[in-house]
Design brief:
alpha/beta, D-Maltodextrin-Binding Protein, domain 2, homodimer, two-stranded antiparallel sheet, 40% helix, nine-stranded mixed β-sheet, 13 strands, 10 helices, DNA-binding
Chain lengths: 316, 316
Amino acid sequence: MDLRHISFRLLEVFMSVVKTGSISETARNLHLTQPTVSLQIKRLQEAVGEPLVLMHQQKLTVTEAGVELFKTCQQVFGKFDDYKDFLAELKGGERGRCKIAMVNTAQYILPKLLGPYSNRHPHVELPLEIGNRAEVLARFERGEDDIYVFSHPPSLEHAKAARFLHNPLEFIVPRDHPLTKEQNIKLEQLTPYRFLLREPGSATRMLFESELQSRGLVLSDSVQMRSNEAIRVAVSSGMGIAVLSRHVLPNEGGEFKVLSVVDTNLASHWYFVIRTDRHLSHAARSFLQFAEKHLELYLGAQWVRNELSQLSSIEI
Amino acid sequence: MDLRHISFRLLEVFMSVVKTGSISETARNLHLTQPTVSLQIKRLQEAVGEPLVLMHQQKLTVTEAGVELFKTCQQVFGKFDDYKDFLAELKGGERGRCKIAMVNTAQYILPKLLGPYSNRHPHVELPLEIGNRAEVLARFERGEDDIYVFSHPPSLEHAKAARFLHNPLEFIVPRDHPLTKEQNIKLEQLTPYRFLLREPGSATRMLFESELQSRGLVLSDSVQMRSNEAIRVAVSSGMGIAVLSRHVLPNEGGEFKVLSVVDTNLASHWYFVIRTDRHLSHAARSFLQFAEKHLELYLGAQWVRNELSQLSSIEI
DNA sequence: GTCAGGTATAGATTATAATCTATGAGTTAT
DNA sequence: ATAACTCATAGATTATAATCTATACCTGAC
């Protein structure tokens, strides 16, 4: 039997013939002429190499080979129906995958969205990649993920960024630090202390350093640390002071204090970034829609800057 | 997704692309040109309505929809492979159905062949129909079975008969019948007794009556009975005498005796009959081949008249 | 015997599937 | 920078699938 000469149409016609037990009736049902159906069956039989139906005295009987082919067809069409169901879910964003790459700091805020989304869309896979800015940028270049999360979005070709959250930066010091007794602290008062910083390239550090530079200030001492947790712990134990995103601080004051610096308001924003030269997966689209709708609920209205409609308009 | 625009060929090509991860390599493997494969994939994607593979920087990745379609294809081709296996068995006579219709008397001999055949071909269905000559003839006319068993084959159009067994007829009388004491019994000595006969049309009766007629003899009394068992029992209990096939008699003498009639040698043959205007099912062909080969073994060499090669030459 | 209903066959047409060559454009490695 | 390889696209051809009309052939019913 040669599958190459068999089309799905042919099998459909055959199944109808088996069901109705009549060539003429099949022709009427499928809006074909009787010779067409006759010929289809004949061709199918040639392709199978075996009689499938026998005509005898106006009565059509289905052979063994025909019955078995009929069963096979039912199963095959069943499989394709399953696949169609799968496609429908995929297109509806109910199934599939939405790979998200985010810079380190985002891991403190994104789960607040991802958790609820994942609950409502249990069949969507949500693999997360967390890296520093350079790593996430490299992933973007290679197009490895569906959605990228940056503060300071890259202004690259094919990149479309949309702000969704305000990211205020705070100065933190050990609880017993001398500055905690001061009022009206200014930025230059902080420079003599040792600063604990993330690696160069980190958005927070970039923002902080550009602020220092524009005001002609220089840090007297700084130590580079690999993670925000490490910085928090180090500040708590008195190793130095630091600038951290409000979102990475515990709600309740811990072993450190937040300084209010009157002449400085450091802040950036969180952005979802997508590539405009690539298909956005249905799941990714569905996640962005979910985010656009529920940002305020899950991230706190006071921080939200919802500009995600800019992304939903993109049609790739 | 529209199955009508999808061919098995298309799916084969798609599967190869997924397996090799390369369009060019698929083209080489399938002896096609690269643009052909590109276009096939493009068309398949259009038919499915969803991207199946993504090209990025010389690297081909398969989408969710692609992976799922691939799985679906594997299952579908698996089903067709199963069907091909089924067909192979069918064509080899290992599977299928061989309907046999036989006249009553044949039920004493055919099981000796059917049993061994069925043991060796356990997947072949062997539905049997047993009737009197008229009934089996009617089934033949309507083509309801694959093989018909007659003594006295019908000389109809489209009927091809082949002898396979000698069918000697014997006269039986009650054990204490007066004739058992005689020697050199002649046929005319039997006519005064009451004969127990099958219905007119029975081959045995036809043969016997034509013998009587050709010799100008007439039975003085006869009773019609519905089965050979009934006749045997009736003879045993002294109701009359009868003509029966040697094959329906028990090997060991029972309540009756076989008469030796010196001037009469009644005999017919058993024939397998098939229609020449119909496909002979593979199973039927296989049964006839089996019979041709093993007649002597299962039916006793002394009775066999193996002319079955006449049937195997028929190619329908 | 004729008619109606079912099927088969022949011949023709149209649509489209399957394939090619030629070419352009991007990527990788030397 | 260039060669070698990848894939995509355009344009053209060929094969064949899908379909029709017209016609002939059965069979069963009236």
